[in-house]
Design goal:
alpha/beta; 2 domains; 290 residues
């Protein structure tokens, strides 16, 4: 059984209007439709799958069924993500909207039509009103429904993934906040337990900058250990989230590096306040505590 392909029915100018480039060949023409020529356009990924290069597909023939006439490929269109921006582009064949002898029908016309308009006035009510007036001046009984901009289509296709990522972002922010509070608490407790030691260091000539560096370094060490463990776990877990990633590898080194640097920065900030308090310890009072 041959693999299934996505079928789309288009008219001349569709790809230009949508901004879809032609990788090879030409677009359909109104002459093709009027003379019922047996022509077709395929997607770039389908051309590469069957003939390795888009240019090699020009002149080849395809047909919709084993008993239907062969149709010559006259163009190769760039890949389009018909199922949403977060899904791979399907291998697609683009047929003319008007054909003869298609899938057992002597005369084939695609009844349901979607018109695409490229304009700077997209989304405005005045444009929609004008379109209705033009269409109804020719055919008053034709309804105009499901008017949407491509931005609305794009947002709708990404709504589920966007909501999931927002929730994950909130969870990540809460985890970061808890981590900062945890580091601050641990370092503060450590400083309070080492007050005598810090007083002795100050009495022996240790400077404020040296003490702050020591305390902050302890916090960065704890954060570094946590980041190392977290990176190892993330490398395994993020593959499960690959369906939510768009044009991004599950193991993206730049993202990991930015996240690790951000966590180290947050740990440094959380450690600085206890470090500042440690550097202001009065050595006399510290030695009297015990």
């Amino acid at each position: 059984m041959p693999p299934l392909r996505r079928f789309k029915f288009v008219a001349p100018g569709f790809f230009q209007t949508m901004g879809t480039p032609l990788a090879a060949g030409r677009d359909l023409t109104w002459t093709d439709l009027e003379q019922r020529k047996n022509v077709a356009i395929v997607s770039e990924n389908m051309a590469r799958e069957l003939w390795r290069e888009p240019a090699a597909a020009i002149g080849k023939r395809v047909r919709e069924g084993s008993k239907d006439p062969w149709r010559e490929i006259v163009g190769v269109a760039g890949d389009i993500r018909h199922d949403g921006a977060d899904q791979k582009a399907p291998t697609t064949v683009y047929w003319p909207v008007v054909m003869d002898n298609f899938w057992g029908n002597e005369k084939f016309v695609q009844r349901g039509s979607v018109y695409v308009i490229r304009t700077d006035r997209a989304g405005s009510e005045s444009l929609l009103t004008q379109i209705r007036q033009v269409v109804w001046s020719v055919t008053p009984d034709v309804p105009i429904v499901k008017v949407r901009t491509m931005e609305e289509v794009f947002r709708g296709s990404m709504a589920r993934s966007g909501f999931t990522l927002v929730m994950l972002g909130i969870a990540g922010a809460m985890a970061l906040l808890l981590g900062i509070v945890g580091i601050y608490g641990v370092i503060s407790y450590s400083v309070s337990q080492r007050t005598r030691e810090l007083g002795i260091r100050i009495a022996l000539g240790a400077g404020n900058a040296e003490l702050r560096a020591m305390v902050v370094g302890q916090g960065l060490l704890l954060a570094g250990i946590g980041i190392g463990v977290g990176l190892a776990v993330a490398g395994a877990v993020t593959r499960i989230m690959s369906s939510l990633l768009f044009e991004t590898s599950p193991v993206d080194f730049l993202s990991y590096a930015v996240a690790a640097a951000s966590l180290l920065g947050a740990a440094a900030i959380a450690s600085y306040l206890p470090a500042h308090r440690a550097s202001s310890v009065n050595p006399v009072e510290a030695l009297r505590m015990e």
